[in-house]
Design brief:
By secondary structure, the chain is an all-alpha fold. Helices cover about 70% and strands about 0% of the residues. α4 runs antiparallel to α5.
Length: about 120
């Protein structure tokens, strides 16, 4: 439930602050669950957190022109970026698209400083 509040698209904070708060939560969970064997659940939690963050990032970009420009910067082909940008899908549905998943992948979030629960408990 806390992760859901921290990744709420209506929460108007910077991505850096949001990631800092998520990292604090993940570190706490990691320390608590280190004893148990929850690696399978940790992978699901990590995947869900990244998808929610992708939806937040997509909402931050707001305009199609900004979305297109940012997808091009993240090495998505122009054709795929245009298709993704002009989609009628809303934030949650587009966050699962292959183009956005490719652009905002695990390395992208690691560069921004997002910790992985799976790595914390390992």
């Amino acid at each position: 439930m806390k992760l859901k509040k921290l990744t709420n698209r209506n929460w108007g904070v910077s991505m850096e602050f949001r990631i800092m708060k998520i990292n604090q939560l993940i570190q706490g969970w990691g320390n608590y669950f280190k004893v148990g064997d929850i690696k399978k659940y940790a992978e699901k939690i990590d995947a869900n957190a990244r998808r929610r963050l992708r939806a937040c990032r997509w909402k931050e970009w707001k305009k199609p022109k900004t979305r297109y420009k940012n997808l091009i910067k993240l090495d998505v082909s122009k054709d795929k970026a245009k298709r993704c940008t002009n989609s009628r899908k809303k934030y949650w549905r587009i966050s699962k698209s292959p183009q956005l998943d490719f652009a905002l992948n695990n390395e992208y979030w690691q560069k921004l400083g997002l910790k992985s629960l799976y790595n914390v408990i390992s």
